[in-house]
Write a structure and sequence with these properties.
single chain; 544 residues; alpha/beta; Ferritin; Rossmann fold; 2 domains; 9-stranded mixed β-sheet; two-stranded antiparallel ribbon; globular; disordered N terminus
Length: 544
């Protein structure tokens, strides 16, 4: 068998920081990829991460159960008979009652680890995935089961099992931090970076998801994503609730995804986090096969595939969702907006990522739909985002925030707010962000805080300071002003430009100084030209 990566920490020099556990695991796993395409390898790796996770949870539950049976002070103490204890430890109901996936004997991670060097390891993994699906109805049709294919060598699979069997994954510190959930999320991002443009089908960059969730603040209620990808919006919403002292069960999650492989990724991702989500019985197109027709959500968050031309609009000209106008068959942007509004409750708020063209387009009736949305006072906030945030997508994008109720209110799902009727907040964040590599930009925590603070202050939410316009960044605008601008929603039209800083130099003196510097530059250029010409003449004489 080929030598396998040890996944050791790299040596550090000076200020170089040791790699995170996730990065080390990625390096070890990626080293085994060989020539396999990242899009295919993604499912191989993430399936094994999931298998390790459910096995770890199962085995931890098993150890806890055994400890209770051997503790005379515990209510579960009954008998120390080895056979009785063995039967109890293999009682499926003991695990399902605790919300733990049942893993049949012979198909647990330790079994696969023991067989990692065997030539049939691929078939063993497939058998384990199949057995787990059969025993756990919520996972049926979800787990990958093609590990026995020819292009996946036993060396590769054995190496991956070794990688995900590392002891540091089992430490108490890592268990408390949900390390396998972190690994799964980290790997999704790295695969997205590898896949480029195709990554948009399953992954929204974490900083964008964080921004959307922090602005929307889904503390309580029903959360819906009609194009949920791998479930990143739901993971971040759950993380937000926990970070702010909320109760996880106070939000219920509903989603839909039309790509079957991405739907499976989402099911595994949410299971890793212990998030009980309704993603429908299977994958499906939100336009033509709406799996949540009766849902009215408190929050809608989505990064749909925007600017798509083949969304099937010609078959849905009379759809009841198009209350503000029939969207063009050649672009789904305004179909997505109206679909989300249709599923938004009477006091709900939604946010979606769209191409910047949606802010000003007049083609095929889009301008009239946008005018209707504005005149009905549904548009709450528009955020222009910096470029290069999304993998493989260079076109500028923005966030739309819409709500069905701008009145002063306090509802269970949101903080108290002031009356905002007749107003729209525009935020121009194009100058924010930092480059993380040659082609990709990211928003920092400070960037996110700056945007969210402006939004919450403008809404007049409890605990926020007073809102003020900031030239070049944010402006509260009346609907009349938007109408005067032809119902165009581009933030740059409204926020103005930042005030220039006074350097204290009088204008006349500055002009004189600049004039002198320009003249000096011209003189230096002429002197350099003379030297170059003289040198060339010298070469000519030398040749003669």
């Amino acid at each position: 068998m080929a030598a396998r990566s040890t996944g050791r920490r790299r040596r550090t020099n000076g200020d170089e920081q040791p790699k995170s556990l996730e990065a080390q695991l990625w390096d070890s796993a990626n080293a085994l990829r060989s020539s396999m395409d990242a899009a295919e390898y993604k499912h191989v790796v993430l399936g094994l991460v999931f298998l390790r996770y459910v096995s770890d949870v199962f085995e931890a539950t098993q150890k806890s159960l055994l400890a209770r049976m051997n503790d005379p002070e515990d209510p579960d103490y009954f008998s120390t008979d080895p056979e009785y204890q063995r039967q109890t430890l293999e009682d499926r109901d003991e695990y399902t009652a605790a919300g733990v996936f049942w893993i049949p004997e012979g198909h647990r991670w330790t079994d696969l680890q023991a067989a990692a060097t065997q030539p049939d390891i691929g078939s063993r993994i497939d058998a384990a995935m199949d057995a787990i699906e059969k025993e756990n109805p919520t996972l049926r049709g979800v787990l990958p089961k093609n590990y026995a294919r020819r292009e996946l060598s036993s060396d590769t699979l054995g190496g991956l099992i070794d990688t995900f069997s590392r002891q540091d994954l089992a430490t108490e510190e890592n268990k408390s931090l949900d390390v396998l959930g972190r690994v799964y999320e980290y790997f999704l991002g790295r695969f997205a970076s590898s896949e480029g443009r195709r990554a948009g089908e399953f992954y929204t960059p974490r900083s964008i998801v964080t921004l959307m969730v922090e602005m929307l603040e889904p503390f309580n209620g029903r959360v819906y994503d009609p194009a949920c990808g791998s479930g990143g919006m739901f993971v971040q919403a759950d993380r937000f609730v926990q970070a702010h002292g909320g109760v996880r069960n106070d939000i219920s999650v509903f989603g839909q995804e039309q790509n079957p492989t991405t739907w499976r990724l989402a099911k595994m991702n949410l299971a890793l986090r212990g998030i009980d989500a309704n993603l429908g019985p299977q994958w499906g197109d939100s336009f033509t096969d709406d799996l949540h027709k009766d849902l009215r959500a408190d929050f809608v968050l989505a990064n749909p595939p925007f600017n798509i031309s083949d969304w099937g609009g010609e078959r849905m000209r009379d759809d009841p969702r198009w209350t503000h106008g029939v969207p063009p068959t050649g672009n789904a942007n305004y179909a997505w907006i109206q679909h989300m509004l249709y599923h938004l409750g009477p006091t709900g708020t939604m946010t979606t990522v769209l191409a910047n063209g949606s802010l000003s387009s007049q083609q095929s009736g889009e301008g009239e739909i946008r005018r209707s949305l504005i005149e009905d006072d549904l548009v709450e906030c528009i955020v222009a985002l910096p470029g290069q945030l999304f993998y493989g997508v260079q076109i500028p994008v923005c966030l739309w925030f819409l709500t069905k109720d701008k009145s002063a209110r306090k509802v269970r799902s949101e903080r108290a707010q002031r009356d905002r009727h007749g107003e729209v907040l525009f935020i121009d964040a194009r100058h924010l962000g930092h480059m993380t590599d040659r082609t990709h930009k990211d928003l920092s925590a400070d960037d996110i805080a700056k945007i969210t603070s402006a939004y919450h202050a403008w809404r007049g939410e409890t605990g926020e300071g007073a809102y003020t316009d900031q030239a070049g960044f944010c402006a509260a605008v009346t609907l009349a002003q938007v109408a005067d601008n032809g119902y165009v929603l581009t933030p740059g039209r409204y926020v103005g430009v930042p005030a220039s800083e006074d350097d204290g130099e009088p204008l006349d003196e500055k002009i004189d100084r600049l004039r002198r510097e320009i003249r000096e530059g011209f003189a230096q250029r002429e002197a350099l030209q003379a030297k170059v010409l003289a040198a060339l003449d010298g070469l000519r004489l030398g040749d003669g």
